[in-house]
Amino acid sequence: MKNILRIFRYLKGYKREVILNIVFNLLYVFASLFSFVMVIPFVSVLFGIIQPPELCPEFSFNKDVIIDYFAWQLNSYSVTYGVFKCLMIISIIYIFFAFLSALFRYLGMYYLAPIRNGVIKDLRNDIYHKITILPLSFFSNKRKGDLLSRMTSDLLDIEISLISSLQMMIKDSLMVIVFMTTLIIASPKLVLFIVIIMPLVAYLIKQIGASLNRNSEKGQKQIGTVLSTAEETLGAIRVINTYNAEETIVKKFEEQNNRYSRLMTKILRRKELAAPLTEIFGIFALVIIVIFGGLMVIKGEIHPSILIGFVLLFARILAPMQSVTTAYYNLKKASAAAQRLYEILDAKEKIIEKPDAIEEIEFKNKISYKNVFFSYREENEENKMVLENINLEALHGQTVAIVGKSGSGKSTLIDLLPRFHDVVGGEITIDDVPIKDFNINSLRKIIGVVTQESILFNDTIFGNIAFGIDATLEQVQNAAKAANAHNFILNTPKGYYTNIGDRGLTLSGGERQRICIARAILKNPKILLLDEATSALDTESEKLVQESLHALMQGRTTFVIAHRLSTIVNSDKIIVMDNGKIVEEGNHQSLLSQNGIYSKLIELQTL
Question: Does the pTM of the predicted model rise above 0.90?
């Protein structure tokens, strides 16, 4: 339940609404209480259950004095004006307090609405912000569907189960407390009979609640699996259709969905035990009150009006007691969802920025990798190194090409420069200053990245090129022209303001890549990272993209991961990687003369 308490901390931002909600709920409770209490002496006198005193007692806050006082006043009024008129006056007063009760209840809900929506909004914002700053290694171990499930299904579960319970927890808890206090004042002995059976109720509620929490956690994980399968299907629909695997993938989805349905059925059945369980024990307690209270009236220990009032008030708090029990079950169910959310919010930010980090980065001389080691593994796992003893230097304005077989560590090598990951040994420096000393945003501001996969957003062409940059249309057009993208953009329905759809799939591969290059040109970075930017393109598109890349690389320090070695023969420096190590280094001609791995790769691609 500690995660539930952590969510309640978000209420700090809504102190005014919380206070007003409590105040109006308290007024609602007292209005409800008074409307019940005032009927007791009237009914008693009207039907002759008790006889009013001969003289009007002096009013004081004593239950017997209060009963006698109202009994004398009502009897006097009924004798003077008649029973019917007295009944009408009481009815009007009762309706008045019933109206106040309803009004205060509405006002309590009125001020709960911004709390309910605000807490969920703040929680969703914090989760999304956390996701944007977590290192890439966090996402390599998580399925997209599971993360989406946490931001949607789990949050919805918290909103329904937790935030919706706030009104029950505040209003009904206050009603139970105030009414029970009144019952204790009326007859402590009768309340004792209720208290005797309460531990049994509490024990049963606790046991069912624990079971509900366990099943809820399983249910949240299962819906994450269902969403992951759906997300994978949407991304791989072409492959599914090609291999006629529709039946296989549907069967897999149905199995997962059926498992989730069975879990939710079990959860709902357990949850629905709350109301009937409380009701049964409430009625049992009510019967005990009637039996023992009747004996106490016969013995003259209490007034008959006290018993009537006690039964009425206790019957009135049965529903709030059920609500409090339901709220408890809701909290247990929400606890599982909250735990999954806090797995994200509590995830360690492995990329730590120094408090006094350097804001301005000039970069005039060189980038150096000095005895760099890197592993994706956690400290308590098998420490398998992906990069070992990397020593590399790139002078300002140089182009450094990185080649090697798949899995040799090429992409990891350049991912360390913008601190998508941090080295576990050695250091990377810019002008002999460790990159860990720089402000992360300032470091990434001078770095541009173009990857093999064209990463675009469901936005306009203008929005994708100017992503994260406050740019004018003219600046965007100039960047597009340098990227050989201007002409095809003009041929789209709305030019630069054409929406390109999800991941830019309304465009060809070459067009998408040129928009990515235009985005990098507009950013005007000092350092450029190209990760196999043309490997997925046809020959014609590759030629256009290569021209765009050539324009982008001018005057910049560039690291190029190349699939087609013909594109990097003119690089200032070429390094060959194998099993996380640099095994060869030099320019094209010097590497050919070594007759090593690079020479064999060139030979394979020219056959």
Answer: no
Domain CATH for 147: 1.20.1560.10
The percentage of residues in the chain with a pLDDT greater than 90, rounded to a whole number, is: 11
Query: How far apart, in Å, are the Cα atoms of 381 and each of 296, 419, 423, 477, 565?
Result: 71, 22, 17, 50, 37
Distance CA 477, CA 472 (A): 9
Distances (CA, A) of 51 to 47, 118, 445, 589: 10, 56, 88, 118
Contacts of 249 (CB under 8 A, 6+ apart): 229, 233, 240
Pick the closest to residue 511 from 530, 536, 532 (CA basis): 536
According to DSSP, the residues that pair with 369 across neighbouring strands are 392, 428
Q: Tell me the pLDDT band of 39, cut-offs 50, 70 and 90.
A: low
Q: Please check the confidence at residue 141 and state whether its pLDDT lies above 60.
A: yes
Question: Around Cβ 220, how many Cβ atoms within 10 Å?
Answer: 24
* Closest alpha carbon to 257 in 215, 235, 229: 229
* CA diameter of the chain: 125
Q: How many domains does the chain have?
A: 2
Alpha-carbon distances of 165 from 171, 217, 222, rounded to whole Å: 10, 19, 24
Does residue 591 form part of some domain?
Answer: no
Q: For residue range 354-395, what is the model confidence (pLDDT) as tens digits?
A: 888 888 888 889 999 999 999 876 544 556 788 999 999 999
Looking up residue 556, the CATH number of its domain turns out to be 3.40.50.300
DSSP 358: B
Domain check: are 300 and 436 in the same one?
no
Residue ranges of alpha helices (H) inside 299-398 are 304-345
CA-CA-CA-CA torsion sign (445, 450, 454, 460): positive
Listed in sequence order, the residues at least 6 apart from 204 whose beta carbon sits closer than 8 Å to its beta carbon are: 277
d(CA 507, CA 493): 12
In this model, does residue 288 exceed pLDDT 90?
no
Domain that holds residue 491: 366-376+383-397+407-564
